[in-house]
């Protein structure tokens, strides 16, 4: 797993945020994002609006936080096997992201487009950071700008491949990546 610094957070804050997130998720299954209000979320959570605003700026902030927390956990879980970029890591990341995007679509049918677009942005940002860290670990002597560009390339490719799979493939995520990754890796490294 990647070593990400953590700070101690008051358990009450964590519980309140969790309650707000769960309430937001419940409301988002019932209403379109454009119809969701802070009042809907706070009533479901049985907290006041001031409590909501102590944690989030608006409904889009809680959406971003919700996506961030869930995808970060999934991505970190997928990376426990290695801290270097290799075929296994790319395959695990692809499967993790694909499964996550399916979960987002299934759990938020009324808001799947809004949620999927936000999830894609969040995944892209997190994945680029993860690839940058992994490349730094693998190539500590390499110029940081080259590593950042390489991380951006890997991120765009992996996210694009997930979108392509979602839009066009009938294969499972596992079968799709098993079929395509060897060709991609072989031909990219032998250009």
UniProtKB/TrEMBL annotation:
Residues 37-56 bind DNA. This is Transcriptional regulator, TetR family. Pfam families: TetR_N. Keywords: DNA-binding. It comes from Staphylococcus lugdunensis. Residues 14-74 form the HTH tetR-type domain. The keyword ATP-binding does not apply. GO terms for molecular function: DNA binding.
């Amino acid at each position: 797993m990647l070593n990400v610094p953590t700070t101690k957070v008051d358990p009450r804050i964590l519980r309140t945020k969790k309650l707000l997130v769960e309430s937001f998720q419940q409301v988002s299954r019932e209403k379109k994002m454009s119809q969701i209000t802070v009042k809907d979320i706070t009533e479901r959570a049985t907290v006041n609006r001031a409590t909501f605003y102590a944690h989030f700026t608006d409904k889009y902030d809680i959406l971003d936080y919700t996506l961030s927390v869930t995808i970060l956990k999934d991505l970190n879980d997928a990376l426990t096997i290695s801290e270097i970029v290799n075929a296994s890591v790319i395959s695990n990341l692809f499967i993790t992201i694909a499964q996550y995007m399916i979960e987002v679509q299934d759990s938020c049918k009324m808001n799947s487009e809004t949620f999927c677009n936000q999830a894609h942005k969040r995944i892209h940002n997190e994945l680029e950071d993860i690839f940058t860290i992994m490349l730094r670990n693998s190539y500590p002597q390499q110029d940081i700008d080259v590593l950042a560009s390489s991380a951006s390339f890997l991120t765009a490719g992996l996210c694009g491949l997930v979108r392509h799979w979602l839009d066009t493939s009938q294969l499972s995520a596992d079968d799709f990546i098993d079929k395509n990754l060897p060709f991609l890796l072989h031909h990219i490294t032998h250009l």
